[in-house]
Amino acid sequence: MSSLTSPRSVLIAGYSAGFGAALARHFEAAGYTVIKASRSGDGEQLDLTDETAVHQWFSCLDRDYPPLAGVIHNVMAFLREPLLSTTAAQLESVWRASVMSAFLLTREAVPRLESQGGGTLIYSGASGSRRAGPGFAAFSSAKFALRGFAQAVAREHGARGIHAVSVIIDGLIASDKTAARFPGSDPQRMINPDDLAAQYLELFRQPASVWTQELDIRPMGGSF
Amino acid sequence: MSSLTSPRSVLIAGYSAGFGAALARHFEAAGYTVIKASRSGDGEQLDLTDETAVHQWFSCLDRDYPPLAGVIHNVMAFLREPLLSTTAAQLESVWRASVMSAFLLTREAVPRLESQGGGTLIYSGASGSRRAGPGFAAFSSAKFALRGFAQAVAREHGARGIHAVSVIIDGLIASDKTAARFPGSDPQRMINPDDLAAQYLELFRQPASVWTQELDIRPMGGSF
Amino acid sequence: MSSLTSPRSVLIAGYSAGFGAALARHFEAAGYTVIKASRSGDGEQLDLTDETAVHQWFSCLDRDYPPLAGVIHNVMAFLREPLLSTTAAQLESVWRASVMSAFLLTREAVPRLESQGGGTLIYSGASGSRRAGPGFAAFSSAKFALRGFAQAVAREHGARGIHAVSVIIDGLIASDKTAARFPGSDPQRMINPDDLAAQYLELFRQPASVWTQELDIRPMGGSF
Amino acid sequence: MSSLTSPRSVLIAGYSAGFGAALARHFEAAGYTVIKASRSGDGEQLDLTDETAVHQWFSCLDRDYPPLAGVIHNVMAFLREPLLSTTAAQLESVWRASVMSAFLLTREAVPRLESQGGGTLIYSGASGSRRAGPGFAAFSSAKFALRGFAQAVAREHGARGIHAVSVIIDGLIASDKTAARFPGSDPQRMINPDDLAAQYLELFRQPASVWTQELDIRPMGGSF
């Protein structure tokens, strides 16, 4: 799958100006038609946690775009909050943004990908996908859930050509937003969004004999 | 904490006739007042995923029962269903029963336990808490989430006396219900509910210098 | 197995004045005959990495002691050393003390235990059994190896009654030796050797329907 | 590091006709000078577990080859043997081939790589690096050890430019040797050595902002 022999689309869910834009550049340069979706901002403005909306949108995609090659789930829903001040609404909102959206997209994408002989699903995780630290009851719980979901998809649909991958992003992705949210962080110790986008593209290109299910990524010298 | 010097309560959430009853017997024999809650059946009939209901109920507990020593979360919410036929409602329902209930109970219990010098929170997991197999996208996603939640509680509140444990129940608990659901299973290869209840009691009794955060349990010779 | 109906022995390998002595007290109080072995110090002075010596010693045990109920492997072989100043001799010595000794003891013990209907093997691990940090190339490599070894024993001989457990001791065990080696450590944040010994005894007592394969232990509030 | 600006060497330890040759082709095509070593066969015939021999050989490499860019450790030392019939000599031999060789090569390579601004070390693992099954007491113990070793190297030397990676090869690599050893295996479900070699090359090319520490690889539909 190292080159596209016919037009294919890739859907970026949770599109953002930083890493989302880098993904779009890299996949477009590789010949993919890029479809962007987010709650607000560039691309299709869509509530990815709304079952009906997601279902109808995929019908439009079928009509308007080349066949799907894969989906990149990049909805972040970051929350650091002490357990006792976390609200039920926050817990649910973080889970819904992370997991319900991934579920709805996957359920729509899988039959379409299988009808094309397969495809790639990438779920963006974080350090908190494997280790739940203080302040991350809601966030890590959702990221653990997403990691388990990705494993189940990989094991259930792998033999039918579905390559489901968790990327464990164990560091901060450099962006204006990151600089504002984590002031004092050293940009030299951050993940370059273009470098990361290139890694995602490599996952789409992995031949069927060498599939990765879980890829950890961190900057050189990052503690882990 | 190997013996009770004053009356204390333990709350069993997701009480059931099989393992729940065994837990009740063992904790009562050890001197605890047992409070039972489930959606339907014995004990308090309560929607453990309803924030207001749980909050009000804990106020009643404060009035009616000895101080809390801990909570046992045993809401199972088992689902085996192919990914493509899983509904959004099922995904949410399994998560809500597993994770939202654990969150609501924990948020109420932690301040009460800390005011008593600490206490024990046990979250019942399953094989699917660590490995998500085919057919378990919803179930494992929820169980992964619960495991992450328990870790976050342990790390955030451990130093204040909260002993949060995941028990990974890697096997079937023998009961009439299990026999009906998994016909053909060998009862000799199942977990005895009384044996398991005794292990939960031991976790409540672990001295503060030797706390376990995650306990795997399986019958002799069980594959894993 | 919650009480001994006939005399049984338990072998403590890597016996030491601190935790080893606590183990001996607890198992003797529970009715076991305790057999102690270490390279130097109390008990049998024996090179546990010497195949012939271990083999001959077990023949003596058959003659002199009640049938074996289990083995506790507690050979520590701690080493913190920068990678580049670690010698090949150190790497080998740490591995030999940790892994070769466990292998030789296991190979002798398993047939004896199986002939008695089963028994318990506990391998003492450390934080470094699951996470290899800087300075621990030799130590963690050996502890990872021991953890893998214990898993293989559990899976290969579990159905024949062999209960093989790794205990992940994620903290310092309080002792004079520990105080000298890690000056400034807070004894309140250490593992009490008697508490830990009681946990080991509980593992020997786990009924066959509720076996644990890996038990993590750390003091309240310990970071992990 | 996506292209070579000056001549660099890569050392393949445990060179073999199948995967080793594929690695050599891919790295040579990418501009690297390939240095091959194995106990017997193509390339330098060298006992990689002999401290003096390895040390002297690196002195020769300094003289005869371009500066090192990295090392690929691919010494397999496969053994499937029941625990009770495994000999101490086998346990040691498997460990020595897997771990001692990795240690000796790493200790020589790290200072050389650091003097060049960094480099890549890849340690080839297997399914048994993470899960120790029956029959694999010796093999998995050694592969667990190697995984721990790689982690320690990554954490200790990552900030100085050393990118240490474990590749978890979770499947059979197609070759004549594999076909002979595992008759009846479906070549369609095997890892293509050229595909795998390309993945190793990608790891060498990962920019410093997106390093992977552990990469699992399996063929499409492989069970795990």
UniProtKB/TrEMBL annotation, chains A, B, C, D:
Residues 8-171 form the Ketoreductase domain. Pfam families: adh_short_C2. Gene3D superfamilies: NAD(P)-binding Rossmann-like Domain (3.40.50.720). This is Short-chain dehydrogenase. It comes from Silvimonas iriomotensis. The lineage of its organism: Bacteria, Pseudomonadati, Pseudomonadota, Betaproteobacteria, Neisseriales.
